Amino acid sequence: MTKEELKQNLDKINAELAGFSCQLIAVSKTKPIPLLQDAYALGIRVFGENKVQELVEKHEVLPKDISWHMIGHLQTNKVKYIAPFVSLIHSVDSFKLLKEINKRGKQNERKISCLLQIHIAEEETKFGLSKEEVIDILRSEEFAKMENVKVVGVMGMATHTENLEQVRSEFRGLKETFDELQQHYTAPNIDWQEVSMGMSGDYQIAAEEGSTMVRVGSSIFGARNYAK
Ligand SMILES: *Cc1c(COP(=O)(O)O)cnc(C)c1O
User: Fold this and answer.
1) Lesser CB count within 10 Å: N end or C end of the chain?
2) Mean pLDDT, range 32-49, rounded to an integer
3) Does residue 156 have its Cβ closer than 6 Å to ligand 1?
């Protein structure tokens, strides 16, 4: 992809998000470093990745004023590699993982911002907590004692479907869950701010339904090729 095409893609998305309080997370997974450098030159400072090793490698070579977001399923044994620098983990899908993030946050003397990933899609395959599981975590004594994580919101992925009304209703449900959690749960390690929802196929709908962060990959960087 040329720098010109990249700029056109970014301009288009930014124009569509104008007027919404919605941050664009540039999902650069599988994309080569020079393309990320082009995006950086065009002003992008927040990148999302879904593989720990790739995230670490890209963090090492790209400028230090980039915020790196982990958006994919995270194995507990890999938290240690990203704990020193990651800005936000979107994909906290178990209490076990949150405990590990807290432990590694402590070792690195930082408070790691996290989103609780909530299962909103029809498909069984997507990771995520149920609303009940989220509430169990937030009410637990163990969570109350965690000083090195900060829960700043929720994340969800809609069903992969052409039915955009279904997608809209799943996003609406996640926003309602967020509002409810925000009303009922306050603690020093909670700061309800973010609803991370919306990808290339549905970010406009997500923005309309109250998303504060859209995670957009292929609409910025082009289709991914996993085969090579
Ligand atoms: C890959 C990915 C995205 C971006 O997907 P696109 O359809 O390319 O925009 C968003 N969120 C998560 C969790 C992802 O893994």
Assistant:
1) C
2) 98
3) no
